[in-house]
Amino acid sequence: MTKTVPGSTARTIAAAKELDRVMRLDRGRLIAALAAGLRDLSLAEDVLQEAAVSALKHWGRSGLPTSPQGWLLQVARCKAIDRLRSAKRSKLQTEALAILTDDDADPDTNVIPDHRLRLIFACCHPALDPKSRVALTLRTVCGLTTVEIARAFLDNDTTMGQRLSRAKAKISAAGIPFAVPDPELWPARLDAVLTTVYLIFTTGYIAGPNEPRDLCLEAEYLMRLIDQLRPNDAEIEGALAMMLLTAARRAARIGDDGASLPPAEQNRTLWDSARITEGRSILARAVKRNDAGPFQIKAAIADCQMAEPAPDWLQIAALYRALWQYEPTSVVALNSAVAMAEAGQTEHALEWVESLADQLSDYQPWHATRAALLAKTGNYSQSAAAYRHAIATAPGQAEALFLELRLAALPQT
C-alpha cells in the first residue's frame, strides 16, 4: 500500500494549476523561443510538451520553481539537445544543436526572449497557402486549439488538424527561416502577417476581455511591434488604427442583460476615449500618405460606426464598396448589404443577401443578417426560422442571447 506524503497532494494540485496557467499564457512565447534555435516547429512543440509532462512530476514533488517559464524553456532545450544528439542530423539540425549547446539560459529568469514576430513571419511564409499561414500562427503563437481554429475557418476538426500538420512539415522540409525578413522583402510578406494578426484580434474580440488570454491585447502588442519595425507604413498604421477603434468599444459590447449590442445601441460613455483618440490620430496619419489599402478602409469603417449622433451608414456603405475593390469576397458583400439596409435600402439589401446563399450558407452572420432583413420586410415566419439557425450556430453566449431577444420580439404569426 502506497503511503501518501503530507502536502504532496496540495503540491500536485498547485503544480497542475500553475502549469495550465503558464501553458495558456506563455505557450506562444516559449514555442517561438525554442523554434528560433531549433528551426523546427514540430520539434519545438514536442519538446515543450515533454517539458510540461516533466514539470507536472517535478513541481508536484519539489514545489514550484522560481520561474516556471524559465524552467520549462531550459528543460525543453535539454530535451531537444538529447534528441538531436541521438538522431541522424541534417546540416540545419547540426547548426541548431550548436546554438542550443552554446545557450546558457538561466532557469530562474522570468525574461523569456520574445521571438514571436520571427515565428509569425515563418508561419506566414509565401511557401504556405494563406489559410495555413493564419491557422498555424493562431496555433503556435497564440495557442488556440485545433477546434477553435476550425470554427473560425468553418472547417471540421480533422481537416484543420491535417492542415496544421502539413504546414509544419513544409516549414521544416523547406528550411523556412525563423527570422524577421530584410526590409526589401517586407512588401511581399506584409499582407499575410497583417491578416494573421487581424484574425487573432477578431478571435479575441468575440471571446471577450474576461478570457484567460486576451487575444485582442496580444494582437495589439504584435501590431505595435510591427509598426516599430517598419514605421511610416500606411497599411500597418491602418491595421493598428482599426484595432484601437474597435477595441475602444469592448466595454460597451455586452449589455446589462448579457446580450451583445451593435455600436448604435451601445452606451457611449463606456467607450475608451484614449483608444479612440489614438486610433483616429493614427488613421489620419495613414491617410495622409496617399497609399490606400484595405486595412485603412476597415479602420475608416470602424470610425464611421462611432460617428455622432449615429453611425453614418451611407458613408459606411461607400467604404464597403471601396473595400470590395481590394477584397471581393462574400463577407464584404454581406457587410455592404447590412450598411445598405441601415441606410434605408432594405429590399435591395435583402435581395443581395439572398444572392449570397450558396457561398455563405455555413456562415452564421449570414443567417443572422438574413433574419433581421426578413423581419424588416414583414416575412416573420422565415425570419424566425433564420434566427433559430443563427442562434444554434452563434459563436458565443452573448451573440446567441442578442438573437434570442430579436426572435422573441417578432410578431406572432
UniProtKB/TrEMBL annotation:
DUF6596 domain mapped to chain residues: 189-286
InterPro entries per UniProt: DUF6596 (IPR046531), RNA_pol_sigma-70_dom (IPR014284), RNA_pol_sigma70_r2 (IPR007627), RNA_pol_sigma70_r4_t2 (IPR013249), RNA_pol_sigma_r2 (IPR013325), RNA_pol_sigma_r3/r4-like (IPR013324), TPR-like_helical_dom_sf (IPR011990), WH-like_DNA-bd_sf (IPR036388)
Residue ranges of domain RNA polymerase sigma factor 70 region 4 type in the record: 120-171
Annotated RNA polymerase sigma-70 region domain residues: 35-89
Pfam families noted in UniProt: DUF6596 (PF20239), Sigma70_r2 (PF04542), Sigma70_r4_2 (PF08281)
Coiled-coil ranges per UniProt: none
GO BP terms: DNA-templated transcription initiation
Single Gene Ontology MF annotation: DNA binding
Protein name in the entry: Putative ECF RNA polymerase sigma factor SigI
Species this chain originates from: Pacificibacter marinus
Lineage, top ranks: Bacteria, Pseudomonadati, Pseudomonadota, Alphaproteobacteria, Rhodobacterales
Gene that this sequence comes from: sigI
